[in-house]
Amino acid sequence: MIKPLHIFLFLSALFLTSLGIAYVFPEEGIPLGEDTAIRFASLEEILQQEEDTVEAIDVVALLETYEEEFDSTAIKDSIRLAEIAYRKMIMRIQYPEGQKARLPIFFQSLKTLQSGRAVKIVHYGDSQIEGDRISAHLRNSLQKTFGGSGPGFVAIKSVVDKFSISKSISDNWSRYAAFGIRDSLLHHRKFGMYGSYSRFTPSLPDSVLFPQQTIIKIDTVISDVAPLDSAFADSLTQNALPVPDTLITMDTVIIEAVEPALDLTDTVRAWVEFRPSGIAFNTAKKYNRMRILLGNIKVPFQLKTLVNDSLVSTTSYFPGDDGVHEEFFTSSPDLIRLEFAGAYSPDIYGVLLENTSGIQLDNVAMRGSSGVYFTRINYAQFARQLNREPIKLILFQFGGNSVPYITSDRHEKWYEKNLKKQLKLLRELNPDTDIVVIGPSDMSVKVKTKYVTHPRLESVRDLVRRTAFEYGCGFWDTYEVMGGKNSMPAWVNATPRLGTTDYVHFTPKGAAKVGRLFFDALFKDYQDAQKNNTNGSTDEAP
């Protein structure tokens, strides 16, 4: 029978043993992997009962003070005055030193909206903008201010669907992307300007899809008098085999017929439907045009478009490179259904739902990407698709995904080198387009019992800004706008919650706040440009 004294002695021995282990255990713990370690809390940590986060700022109050109007002559505290001035400064888009004009191409293009033209913004980013987060609020503010409507780009198959449009698809769609883990079966780099495409049949190389007769063995006899049979030479050329200069004895050629990888007489069917989203902004629910971006068409296929359950078009497409299927609407549809039928799917880069005039903003989210994938895309196709659109502003929001993997200065240099390649490429492809780089937000790691800013985040932020300035881009510092170092815990603990408990991503409300703050910064630059133009001066920053 176990007596209370025995239990007490056992627990005392267990406590003393644990205390002894904790005393000799390394303070940093014993690592079990890249992000995992075993450690004992120290006696001081136990007795102090520290909180799980650093001392939290009132993030809502902080953000509100950024835009408070103040009279500098009424504030006698020079430190307080400098603090307010700094907060207002970091809310703005930053530009390279000596650059007088602020986004002159984009702001000038806004004047053309009065004549019924469209101006497109493309927002490339990582998982922080997934589901149309940040972009949707920026789009809504811009469209309400300058005109325009529609949710813009929608991928048929996506990791996270956008809340700005309701979408349903058949279950035979697959997604292929230039970013993330590369599919070893991919045989080309034509991912288009949105970096991915969808298909309703597997992607196969031409050599498998359209096999010809295969030459198994050729016995040659050296000769320079008898010419090669022309018909046979043509067959070799069609099979991508070199035509020899020697005489070929025809009766020694062994030919084997290869069966196609799929029966091109079979018909595969797929569909996708779009409906207005109940949680979308009203501006996103209105559009008068739909475009479907197509490419890599190897065999004929048919596309039917149904609007509000009525068939409006049946179109047959034949082998070619890129194509655009376009439909116009007199009023915004309650239901669009696209039906595809063919033996082999084309690559479908996306569907554009937008108004033909006003602001168009495409959200292009790339989960897990650090923004160095653009140079993987076929250059000619990338340029062709970009130049087809009225793009006047590119938002480039990357950097956060690189932070956990940068563990040395050498890694930082590698990332900076590759980041430069991307901005250089975008500049080459879009010389008549402004670019704003949006820096990484604060992200936390847990050190003992506290959540603190990742030790590499500020240096990555600095290299992203440095690269942006080198290529004449604007830079918006999300990290400082949030409150700077150790600000993410404050966003997580805010009411309502603005950051998720992974201490990396924004909640929908947090993303909405960021979207509106960026719009405010962009609009202030626009107002400054208008004021300077009215006064007859250049768009020089004050």
How would you characterize the overall build of this protein?
The chain has 14 helices and 24 strands. It is an alpha+beta fold. The strands form 8 sheets. It has a 5-stranded parallel β-sheet with strand order 19-3-20-21-24, with helices on both faces. A 5-stranded antiparallel β-sheet has the order 5-12-17-14-15, with no helix packed on it. Helix 6 (135-146) runs parallel beside helix 14 and helix 10 (409-429) runs parallel beside helix 11. The longest helix is centred in the C-terminal third of the chain and has 27 residues, at 508-534. The protein is globular. The N and C termini lie far apart (85 Å). The model is unreliable at 49-54, 213-255 and 536-542 (pLDDT under 50).
How is this structure best summarized?
It contains 14 helices and 24 strands. It has helices at residues 4-24, 43-48, 59-66, 78-90, 104-109, 135-146, 206-209, 230-238, 379-387, 409-429, 457-470, 478-482, 488-493, 508-534; strands at 30-31, 37-38, 118-125, 152-154, 165-169, 174-177, 196-199, 214-217, 220-221, 247-248, 254-256, 268-276, 289-295, 301-307, 310-317, 323-328, 336-342, 347-354, 358-365, 391-397, 434-438, 444-447, 450-453, 474-476. Strand 14 and strand 15 (310-317) form a beta hairpin.
Key words describing this protein structure:
disordered C terminus; five-stranded antiparallel beta sheet; 542 residues; 3 domains; 24 strands; single chain; five-stranded parallel beta sheet; Jelly Rolls; Rossmann fold; 23% strand; alpha+beta
